[in-house]
Specification:
This protein is of the alpha+beta class. It folds into two domains: 2-89, Winged helix-like DNA-binding domain superfamily/Winged helix DNA-binding domain (Arc Repressor Mutant, subunit A, Orthogonal Bundle); 101-253, 3-Layer(aba) Sandwich (Chorismate lyase). The protein is built from seven helices and ten strands. It has helices spanning 2-11, 26-39, 52-59, 63-75, 129-135, 182-189, 208-214, and strands at 79-82, 86-89, 101-103, 115-126, 142-152, 155-165, 194-205, 221-231, 236-245, 251-253. A hairpin with a 3-residue loop joins strand 1 and strand 2 (86-89). Helix 2 (26-39) packs across helix 4 (63-75) and helix 3 crosses helix 4 (63-75). The longest helix is centred in the N-terminal third of the chain and has 14 residues, at 26-39. It starts with a helix and ends with a strand.
């Protein structure tokens, strides 16, 4: 089965290769691929994702593996089975998502271009004064920092920098969040639930490093969003800095009545 999967992926480089070494469960890998495809717009709301049989053929996995991955997407509120039709995408974010504010890259780019996040680096470093203040930890405490850029094709849209106290996600440094969903890893594998989040938005001028990452000039306008997420005990656990290119950013807000 492993050889079949690798050969097939080599023939069609659009199909990611699963790792059959046993280091990570196959249903988890398949779930992550489908999750990212939905979040990044490869499958839009209303689209049908591949059937269990199609997933078995494409990835060389068992029906039980394909079914488990589909069940996880369904439990997250992202797909729904329609009798005689298939599994339809009903949401581009898991139902556990905190935010009712979403940016829609697809409104600004060719729909045929698939968006993706590319890793800059993932590292452990001592908390500086700003991170320590937000996460309510002492300066110098080890912090896991993840930096990624969201692209559509070859065009960068935003820079995202996540910070967590290392003890909160002790094994995060071992994961590859260029391929795996950080949010799904926290919610589904670690079982961590967020209670609330605060968010600030303001305009800033791109510094030299941000300009290099985002393909703009130093001093160009960016939209800066600072988000702090709190766990079930109301402890701040995640500090995210996101820098959006102002010329490409689109925002829609859902307001409850």
């Amino acid at each position: 089965m492993k050889e079949h999967n690798i050969l097939m992926a080599q023939e069609n480089d659009l199909i990611p290769i699963l790792d059959f070494s046993g280091k990570e469960q196959l249903y988890r890998q398949l779930y992550d691929i489908l999750f990212q495809d939905i979040v990044n717009g490869a499958y839009a709301v209303g689209d049908l994702i591949p059937s269990e049989s199609e997933l078995m053929r494409q990835y060389g996995v068992s029906r039980a593996t394909a079914r488990k991955a589909m069940e996880m997407l369904s439990n997250n509120g992202m797909i729904s089975k329609r009798r005689g039709v298939g599994s339809e995408v009903i949401a581009s974010r898991p139902s556990s998502s905190l935010s009712h504010v979403t940016s829609f890259i697809k409104k600004n780019v060719d729909d045929r271009v698939v968006a993706e996040k590319r890793l800059i680096d993932a590292t452990l470093l001592p908390a500086d004064a700003d991170v320590a203040r937000v996460l309510k930890i002492d300066e110098g405490v080890p912090v896991y920092r993840l930096r990624r850029i969201r692209f559509s094709g070859d065009e960068p849209f935003y820079l995202e920098i996540n910070h967590f106290e290392q003890s909160f996600l002790p094994h995060a440094i071992e994961r590859d969040f260029s391929r795996e969903s950080l949010r799904a890893y926290i919610a589904d594998e670690l079982g961590i639930q967020w209670s609330r989040a605060t968010q600030e938005i303001r305009a800033v001028a791109a510094d030299a490093e941000q300009a290099m990452f985002l393909g703009v000039q130093p001093g160009d306008p960016l939209l800066y969003i600072k988000r702090v997420s709190y766990d079930a005990n109301n402890v701040p656990r995640e500090f995210v800095k996101t820098y959006y290119r102002a010329d490409l950013y689109h925002l829609e807000v859902e307001l409850d009545a």
